[in-house]
């Protein structure tokens, strides 16, 4: 059987593709386990500098958690499933490398939550977003009730989650749910461009900046600033000296 998560390395960029197009890339336990493994692999590989997460096929990024798998779960199995999905998405969120969701189609329920667990979201013009869980008699269970309000505000998150309505890429952009919208044909190339822009910067600086933001927003302001100072200090070393010297040298050459 085909791998449910394709791991493809293009130089410093790793592309993770959820690969169950016949079920619109719905997340079942096997997909989550492979995503878990892929995240460990990425975290341990210093050659990978940026991760792009996308879905196989042209129709869906991920159309949610697998409804067929969830249908007969009892509350305790649902609890396990929710805890596991949350653990995997948190691991992805806290990867040392920046992550970009390349949203190529439906990003519904757990699929929208997967995009929310990435650092940046680039959507194709035909992408559709939604948290339709309440229509199935459940609530978002892979972090959606926590990440969505933090990203777009409590009121907008309540609107999307309580109505379960589907929105298009332009509305997602207006809400701040995605960072940019691009034509479907150029989606991956645009994500690669963003990845290249990140890769042009200091390896360690990029990782420290991600950590300062990711951990800082979960702390009180003073604590976040204290941690920023520590990470700022940590950024001083060979990479910083080399980059600052190169800047000053270029300036003196053009003077
Ligand atoms: N789970 C399982 N199978 C799915 C899913 C899904 N989420 N989405 C689509 N599929 C399957 C369909 O069953 C169908 O399979 P088959 O060909 O064997 O019949 C195939 O994918 C193609 O789908 P459709 O025929 O439905 O395609 P359409 O173009 O007609 O419709 C839609 C596309 C609108 C995306 C439609 O498929 C749809 O509404 N899908 C479900 C979307 C949804 O409700 N997602 C949320 C699921 S709940 C969730 O994600 C909770 C997350 C937290 C879990 C926490 C656990 C505790």
SSE order, as H and E? EEHEEHHEEHEEHHEHEHHHH
User: Beta-strand percentage?
Assistant: 15-25%
Strand order in the sheet with the most strands: 1-2-3-5-7-10
Share of helix, binned = 40-55%
Looking at this structure, what is the CATH superfamily of the largest domain? 2-enoyl-CoA Hydratase, Chain A, domain 1
Could you please say which CATH topology of the largest domain applies here?
2-enoyl-CoA Hydratase, Chain A, domain 1
Give the termini distance in whole angstroms.
62 Å
Topology, element by element:
Layout: E1 5-10, E2 13-18, H1 29-43, E3 50-55, E4 60-62, H2 67-70, H3 75-93, E5 99-103, E6 106-108, H4 110-116, E7 120-124, E8 128-130, H5 144-152, H6 154-163, E9 167-168, H7 169-175, E10 180-182, H8 187-199, H9 203-216, H10 221-234, H11 238-254
Parallel strand pairs: 2-3, 3-5, 4-6, 5-7, 6-8, 7-10
Antiparallel strand pairs: 1-2, 8-9
The structure holds octanoyl-coenzyme A.
The site of octanoyl-coenzyme A has 23 residues, from helix 2, helix 3 and strand 6.
């Amino acid at each position: 059987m085909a791998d449910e998560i394709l791991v493809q390395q293009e130089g410093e960029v790793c592309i993770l593709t959820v690969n169950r197009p016949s079920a619109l890339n719905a997340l079942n336990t096997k997909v989550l386990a492979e995503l878990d493994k892929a995240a460990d692999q990425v975290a341990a590989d210093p050659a990978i500098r940026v991760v792009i997460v996308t879905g196989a096929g042209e129709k869906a990024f991920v159309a949610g958690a697998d409804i067929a798998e969830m249908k007969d779960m009892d509350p305790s199995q649902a609890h396990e499933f929710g805890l596991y999905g949350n653990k995997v998405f948190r691991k992805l969120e806290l990867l040392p490398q920046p992550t970009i969701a390349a949203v190529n189609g439906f990003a519904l329920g757990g699929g929208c939550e997967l995009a929310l667990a990435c650092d940046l979201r680039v959507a194709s013009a035909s992408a559709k977003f939604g948290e339709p869980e309440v229509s199935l008699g459940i609530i978002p269970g892979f972090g959606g009730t926590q990440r969505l309000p933090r990203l777009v505000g409590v009121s907008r998150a309540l609107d999307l989650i309580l109505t379960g309505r589907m929105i298009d890429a332009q509305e997602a952009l207006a809400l701040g749910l995605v960072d940019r919208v691009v034509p479907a044909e150029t989606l991956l190339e645009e994500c690669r461009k963003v990845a290249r822009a990140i890769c042009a910067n200091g390896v360690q600086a990029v990782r420290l900046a991600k950590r300062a933001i990711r951990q800082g927003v979960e702390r009180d302001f003073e604590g976040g600033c204290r941690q920023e100072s520590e990470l700022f200090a940590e950024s001083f070393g060979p990479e910083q000296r080399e980059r600052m010297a190169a800047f000053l040298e270029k300036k003196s050459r053009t003077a």
